[in-house]
Structure formats: C-alpha cells, structure tokens
Amino acid sequence: MSILDIRVLGDPVLRKPTVRVTEVTDELRNLIADMFETMYAAEGIGLAAPQVGRTERIAVVDVEGQKFALINPEIIATETPSDKAEEGCLSIPDIYGDVERPTRVTIRFTDETGSEREETGFALLGRCFQHEIDHLDGKLFIDYLSPLKRRAALAKWEKAKAEYPGYVRKVRTEPAGAHNDPDVPEM
Ligand code: K1U
Ligand code: ZN
Questions:
Q1: Is residue 28 within 8 Å of 58, Cβ to Cβ?
Q2: Which is catalytic among the residues 116, 118, 132, 158?
Q3: 79 phi and psi, to 5 degrees?
Q4: Rounded distance, CA 17 to CA 113, Å?
Q5: 126-135: buried (b, 16+ CB within 10 Å) or exposed (e) per residue?
Q6: C-alpha of residue 89 to centroid of ligand 1, in Å
Q7: What distance in Å separates the CA atoms of residue 118 and residue 106, rounded to the nearest whole number?
Q8: Which residue's CA lies nearest to atom 16 of ligand 1?
Q9: Interatomic CA distance for residues 130 and 102, integer angstroms
Q10: Is 86 a residue of the active site?
C-alpha cells in the first residue's frame, strides 16, 4: 500500500466531473486501499478520487469506525431539517467554513466487493457522505460560502498555496511517538 499525494485547490482535477466505474477490479481495490491509507495519514474522515488525481467515481469514508468504500455513490434521499457546521477539506488545508446541509441523507453505492448497497448517514457521517459526493461532482465546500466568506477564504488560500508547489500536498508520515519529539529530526 502507498500514501498518495493530495491535490490542492487550483489543480483542475478537483473541478472535473468523475467517470462512473463499470467493473470493480483488483486495480481499483488497490486504489481504495491506498486512499484509506492516505486519508488516515492525513487525519481525514473522507477522501475522494479527484483529491489523489484520479477521475474514477470513488470515495472512502471513516467516521468513528463507520467505514465505507463508495463506488458510484449517489444521494437518493435527503431529509430536512438542515444543519450548519464547520467543514474543512484535505485539498484546502487550514481553511474552514460553515456549510448548511441536510442532516440526514440516504445514498446508494457499490462496495468494494461489487455489491450494491444503501446507507443512511446522520450528523457527521451524513455530512461526510455529502462532502465526498460533492468532490465527485467537482464541487468544494467553499462553493457554499457567502460571497464575503468565500472571498476571505480564497484570500487566505492565495498566501497559503505557495506551500504546495504544483498544487501537490505531500502527506507526511510520522513514526509513532515522533510528534513533537526533539530527538526525531524534521523530515
Ligand atoms: O474530503 C475531504 O477533504 C476530507 C474532509 C471531509 C469532511 C470534513 C468535514 C466535514 C465533512 C467532511 C476531512 O476529513 S477534513 C478533516 C476534518 O475536517 C475532520 C477530521 C476529523 C473529524 C472531523 C473533521
Ligand atoms: Zn474535501
């Protein structure tokens, strides 16, 4: 398994619509395993294929142990009321904003074994399903912000993006216990 580079805001792949998967192959199962590894290394709760430079309609999610590989996911039902909560994005590091979304969604998807499934997600899981499916449609959470908040977020990103040459975020892996350890050299 490998940790993949994460593409950040400005890379056109994040705005491209994805392509539906027609067959769940071993190559796609390897991609899914790499996406889970990358998501955990980056301390996220979800990751979509465009974020690692791929165009397949695939995302992975793990919210408090509720773990899913989502192939060709679609929202089939949403329930009101909506809820406003802060979101971040592994492709827009250190930028956050409040996004209003339906509290509960039901999705239909194919899992990594090729079986068609339906799941309902509430609260953070429902929000994460919606955030990842948005990625698969070329949409980012900043698109939901008010014009003022979006402008402020983009101004902050203009300065921050210099840290990501080529719109690539290298995910660092830390050996266990190395965090803040003065004896472990910075990589
Ligand atoms: O797709 C991504 O960019 C991953 C993103 C997903 C997400 C964040 C917030 C709400 C819905 C979906 C992240 O995981 S960013 C990390 C993060 O914000 C977070 C991490 C742990 C718990 C809660 C949020
Ligand atoms: Zn995101």
A1: yes
A2: 132
A3: -125, 140
A4: 24
A5: bbbbbbbbbb
A6: 6
A7: 7
A8: 44
A9: 9
A10: no
Q: Give the integer Cα–Cα distance in Å for 30 and 7.
A: 19
Confidence class for position 48, pLDDT limits 50, 70, 90 = very high
What is the arrangement of strands in the sheet containing 97-110, beginning at the earlier edge strand? 46-48, 58-63, 66-87, 97-110, 116-122
DSSP state, 52? Answer: G
**Whether the Cβ atoms of residue 114 and residue 108 lie closer than 8 Å to each other:** no
Structure tokens at 121: 């997600």
Query: b/e for 30-56, b at 16 or more Cβ within 10 A?
Result: ebbebbbbbbbebebbbbbbbbbebeb
Residue with tokens 């979304």: 101
pLDDT band at 178 (very low <50, low <70, confident <90, very high): very low
| 22, 24, 43, 128, 154 from 115: Cα distances, Å | 13, 10, 28, 21, 40
- Specify the pTM: 0.93
**Phi, psi (degrees; rounded to nearest 5) at 34:** -65, -35
Q: Which residues have CB atoms below 5 A from the ion given as ligand 2? A: 89
Predicted local confidence at residue 180, as pLDDT: 43
